[in-house]
Structure of S-layer protein:
Amino acid sequence: MKRQDMAAFLYRLAGSPAFDESKAGNPFRDVTSRTPHYKEILWLASTG
């Protein structure tokens, strides 16, 4: 399982909460807006 898949799983498990990725910081150099599950990855990073 890849990081983006786990992020998507946890995001959905949390009920797919509202999240605006355009307002979130991206702490990952290897994640771009073209990365699968980009929104979910940034959401997971924002949860700490």
User: Anything to note?
Assistant: The radius of gyration is 10 Å. The chain has a mean pLDDT of 95. The chain has two helices and no strands.
